[in-house]
Amino acid sequence: MTLLALTGGIASGKSTIATMLAERGAVVVDADAIVRDVQSPGSPVLAAIVAEFGGDVLRPDGSLDRPVLGARVFGHPERLATLNALVHPAVREESQRRFRAAFDADADAVVVYDVPLLAESRGTGEWDLVVVAHAPAEQRVQRLVSQRGFTEADARARIAAQVGDDERLALADVVIDTAGDVDATRRQVDDLWERLRA
Description:
There is one protein chain. By secondary structure, the chain is α/β, with parallel strands linked by helices. It has 9 helices and 5 strands. The protein has helices at residues 14-23, 31-38, 44-53, 66-73, 77-105, 137-148, 152-160, 165-169, 182-197; strands at 2-7, 27-30, 110-114, 129-134, 174-177. It is globular. It starts with a strand and ends with a helix.
């Protein structure tokens, strides 16, 4: 039974690492997917978001308009903190449920919690290992611009809205440096997997 937290700033290569671990047999629990689930139409979390931020954060079909909400909170620490206080408890509860289900299905499972905001929301500290995906901020800005279509200003604002690299790296038991090519990342993931299965 191994519970690993995998974190990293936006565009750090965290999702690539999660995919590689899944290919090796890990059960990946994706915090972003849980966020989408707990904010689905009709959910208490979505109702609380609307009450706090207004009905114009909804699309015509009743789903959350993420770009509208994002524009309202990123670059505004107090608004972001308010949003996180509405969302994080529900995400924590659902993630715990998914961890239990994975271990109930296989007591020897390696469960990877793919969680971008670990440093912002430390959780219960139950991790056997904290793995941090890391690339320099300038490289992450370029990835956001070239791969995700962000403007440079939006990319910098999104990175600035997260905790700094030093704070994130301070949590790490293992750092996977994603500044190189995908093969270099894969070699580091292979080393991690060997350690987890030893």
